[in-house]
Specification:
Strand order of the largest sheet: 5-4-6-7-8-9-10-15-14
CATH topology of the largest domain: Rossmann fold
Number of domains: 2
Shape: globular
Radius of gyration: 22 Å
Distance between the termini: 52 Å
Number of strands: 21
Strand content: 25-35%
CATH superfamily of the largest domain: ANL, N-terminal domain
CATH class of the largest domain: Alpha Beta
Number of helices: 11
Largest sheet: 9 strands, mixed
Helix content: 25-40%
């Protein structure tokens, strides 16, 4: 695609997103507009993929739910070109392209990697939408954006091709510590990185002068947010994005707003939190309809000071896969979500700035703190004991103080349920 066309597509998406935000300024107007767009999408676009060929005109609730396992098992059925997963993997290992599509993959921190296909037009639609939400003053100001993530993507290439940004990607698979000086030398005024990388930059005392800081790819724990914001004097804004799409961008107030102007959300309850089913009605190459995400969100029911009618999220609490599955003394099963476990540990002692809590067996847990915080182990152990006693769970909790390495090319997870554990 030529640079002028790329810029035209990006700017078109940018202005449409800003215009929608101005026009759809009430919840009722937004939902009415979304319903019309969703109906049009399900009628005319969804049937182009084999998996939905017989569902034209049906309401969303008639469409089957899907997840990563279903997508990967029948990959060719969910994209309009009928491209198989085997062909997509081969293309990913070679040029990253197959026919007119770019191929990408997730990092695989959940144990298996997911593929995605995206056309060039969709890449620039994504870019324009993200820029309108994250950098709405882009046309009045030049930005130098440093993106630190475990894996690059053709989606990020689109930013440089647009001609409005100077963007450099820093590959975390090459090691975090080796990247810090290079980030400073790039002189970014915008940082996009996982919380653990932002914390490392905050502690490195580098000469960074930032206008905006964005967190993504991992859960942003309160203790990390506080340290990052104290160092840079800025509100950390979350970008909620995954292999499956762009789902939310925080406003200047730090409130994460879902991208309901691109995606329809349904909700499944889990432990007082909500797990989303997403239907992206802007994607035309690989269809994501009623796709079950693995994230646990705490939805907000208060109005953000920014006035946006987009659903606000108080917290991305963690991954459903990392909810602990335990049994009470009476044999009943119980699920404890990551946020509850995290809050119990951090609330036990203010000296705790990092930890790992792993469910290693049906009733066995292992708590690790860094060596310098060994003195907080008794308080953290007592807090967890009280928590599980309250649930009626006879948990066996072991503790230790040892170095907690940062992830090598993956995502930092502080609360982890080993995949071999099932209660």
């Amino acid at each position: 695609m030529t640079a002028p066309l790329a810029l035209a597509l990006t700017l078109s998406a940018y202005w449409r997103t800003k215009a929608r935000a101005a026009r759809l300024n009430t919840r009722s107007a937004l939902l009415a507009w979304q319903s019309r767009r969703l109906t049009r999408f399900l009628t005319s676009e969804a049937p182009r993929a084999e998996a939905f060929a017989n569902l034209s005109g049906h309401p969303l609730t008639d469409f089957p739910m899907m997840d990563k396992a279903a997508l990967m098992a029948g990959f060719q059925r969910y994209n309009i070109a009928g491209i198989s997963a085997d062909d997509a993997w081969q293309a990913l290992a070679a040029t990253g392209r197959i026919n007119r599509f770019s191929v990408g993959a997730s990092t695989g921190t959940s144990g298996n990697r997911g593929l995605y296909l995206v056309s060039d037009a969709e890449r620039y639609l994504w870019l324009g939408t993200l820029l309108a939400k994250a950098l709405p003053d882009l046309l009045a100001r030049r930005y130098r954006v440093a993106v630190m993530l475990p894996r690059s993507s053709r989606l990020y290439d689109a930013a440089n091709e647009s001609g409005r940004l100077a963007l450099r990607f820093f590959d975390l698979t090459e090691g975090l510590e080796t990247q810090l000086a290079d980030v400073a030398a790039f002189r970014p005024n915008v940082l996009v990185a996982p919380p653990h990388a932002l914390v490392a930059l905050a502690r490195a005392d580098l000469p960074l002068s930032l206008a905006k800081v964005f967190s993504g790819a991992e859960v942003l724990d309160p203790l990390d947010r506080a340290e990052i914001e104290a160092r840079f004097g800025l509100t950390v804004r979350e970008i909620y994005m995954a292999t499956e799409g762009l789902f939310g961008v925080a406003c200047d107030h730090g409130t994460l707003h879902l991208c309901e102007d691109c995606v329809a959300f349904e909700w499944e309850p889990e432990g007082g939190l909500a797990k989303p089913l997403v239907t992206d009605f802007t994607r035309r190459s690989q269809l994501m309809i009623r796709y079950r995400m693995n994230d646990l969100l705490r939805l907000s029911h208060t109005t953000c000071p920014c006035g946006s009618p987009l659903q606000a999220v108080s917290e991305i609490a963690g991954r459903a896969d990392d909810s602990f599955r335990l049994r009470r003394a009476d044999g009943a099963a119980i699920t404890v979500t990551p946020d509850i476990l995290r809050n119990a540990i951090l609330g036990a002692n203010r000296d705790i700035t990092d930890f790992r809590l792993v469910q290693t067996g049906a009733a066995s847990l292992r708590l690790l703190l860094p060596p310098g915080q060994a003195g907080a182990l008794p308080a953290a152990h007592a807090a967890l004991t009280r928590l599980f006693d309250g649930f009626g769970v006879p948990a066996d909790i072991s503790t230790a103080a040892e170095p907690l390495p940062l992830p090598e090319g993956g995502k930092l997870r502080r609360v982890i349920r080993e995949r071999t554990v099932c209660a």
